[in-house]
């Protein structure tokens, strides 16, 4: 059975998406409730898997990661063994921030964050040495116009 989320849950989630470091008192005040019911709702949202984890967002450029590449991958390999090897290679690389399997002409798209083009080449060479791919196209993002992890609640 699916977990039901009501309007108060949505308000709590919106407040947490905006700034999860806020105190329980601040979140409760913002949603018009008291601390204990809000704490109970957050606990239930975590148990249901609605809240997967709480983390901190870092400024990539401030830490020297100035290049974002979107990597389009085509492969002629679709066997389970190849897919497992490919997944393991992606999981082992912290540069890969996102990976999606696609419908259409492109099989996979990766979002790769690195310091510069040279660092991307090191990533690329390592990846193709581990898994066979048919075609790789890398697109350098010139400017990040919008980036969010917040869901539209």
Structure, described:
There is one protein chain. The chain is elongated, with a radius of gyration of 20 Å. The chain has 2 domains: 7-47, Winged helix-like DNA-binding domain superfamily/Winged helix DNA-binding domain (Arc Repressor Mutant, subunit A); 61-140, 2-Layer Sandwich (Alpha-Beta Plaits). The two termini are 21 Å apart. A hairpin with a 6-residue loop joins strand 2 (96-101) and strand 3 (108-114). The model has no long low-confidence stretch (mean pLDDT 96). The protein is built from 5 helices and 4 strands. It has helices at residues 7-18, 24-31, 35-47, 80-91, 117-130, and strands at 67-74, 96-101, 108-114, 135-140. Helix 1 (7-18) crosses helix 2. It has a 4-stranded antiparallel beta sheet with strand order 2-3-1-4. With 153 residues, it is of the alpha+beta class.
Strand segment count: 4
Strand ordering within the main sheet: 2-3-1-4
Give start-end ranges of low-pLDDT stretches: none
Mean pLDDT: 96
Helical segment tally? 5
Sequence of secondary-structure elements: HHHEHEEHE
Q: What is the count of structural domains?
A: 2
Going by helix content, strand content and strand pairing, the class is: alpha+beta
Percent helix among the residues? 25-40%
